[in-house]
Amino acid sequence: MKTLVIYDISDDDVRNNVANICSSFGLTRIQKSAFIGYLPNSVRKELVIALKKAISRADANVQVFIFCNYCSMYREVLGKGGLEGVTERVIVK
User: Fold this and answer.
1) pLDDT beyond 50 at 74
2) Domain span at 38
3) Total number of domains constituting the chain
4) How far is CA 38 from the centre of its chain?
5) What predicted TM-score, i.e. pTM, was given to this entire model?
6) What letters, b where the CB count within 10 A reaches 16 and e where it falls short, cover 62-81?
7) How far is CA 92 from the centre of its chain?
8) CATH at residue 24
9) pLDDT at residue 37, as a whole number
């Protein structure tokens, strides 16, 4: 299933660590603080554990959303960018 990770973290080191974790799990950056990609449930659980550890002592907000393939194909992308390296069907109006 598609996994979307968004975060709001003020500490640069923690924020960079979270970005590196998302990348290491194969997620693609679609905005400065947002990553998306396909992860099996078992791998997503590992991602959540790694993210919890990374932010354990920080003032941070990390949210992980799970979308079925049907729901994720109705994502609307407005403006430029945000799709580099993302291979999925996207309906753009």
Assistant:
1) yes
2) 2-72
3) 1
4) 10
5) 0.82
6) bebeeeeeeebeebeeeeee
7) 20
8) 3.30.70.240
9) 94
